[in-house]
Amino acid sequence: MATYTPKASEITRDWHVVDAENMVLGRMATEVARLLRGKHKPTFAQHIDTGDHVIIINADKVIMTSDKANRQMIYTHSGYPGGIKSESFAHFHARKPADAVRRSIRGMLPKGPLGRQQLTKLKVYAGPNHPHGSQSPKTFEIAGAKRR
To answer: Pairing between strand 53-57 and 84-88?
Structure first.
């Protein structure tokens, strides 16, 4: 029996809205990464982008359990010798909440061209408003992500 590979014409993409208010970051990020990869579909293939579009709103209200927000460090490097900078996740989240959530989800996607393509389907907004109403997205409730 031959292995099934979905064709580009067979792939359908839905839009999902995730309200991140009072959600635990790690649990939400794993479910969003699953939607972006398409692992929830019966036509999933590891080498093809079969995932859906995901819109995350209220990224500024996401939480981390324990004291992880202050313990976790975010590192950036300018490319020059000695150009490494670090800051806590809490400080980075206060400055750029959408980038902090996007960075967490990016780490759960495949590395390489496929992961970069899947990340383009993620839209993160710090507030409750988003400009994607014309796509008629469905509200997605994450079962494993507990609201605190």
So the answer is: unpaired
Two tokens at 10? 């067979």
pTM reported for the whole predicted model: 0.91
The reported pLDDT for the residue numbered 148 is 64
For residue 25, tell me if it sits in a domain. yes
Burial 19-32 (b: 16+ CB within 10 A, else e): bbeebbbeebbebb
Which of 95, 94, 120 lies closest to 109 in space, CA to CA?
Answer: 120
For residue 123, the SS3 value is strand
3-state helix, strand, coil in the chain (%, to 5): 35, 20, 45
Alpha carbon distance 124, 102 (integer Å): 7
Beta-carbon neighbour count of residue 83 at 10 Å?
9
Residue 57 lies in a domain: yes
Residues of the chain with pLDDT under 70: 143-148
Residues 54, 91: contact at Cβ < 8 Å?
no
Task: Specify the number of domains making up the chain.
Answer: 1
Residue identified by tokens 């939400």 is 28
Query: Domain limits at 47?
Result: 14-88+96-139
CATH number at residue 114: 3.90.1180.10
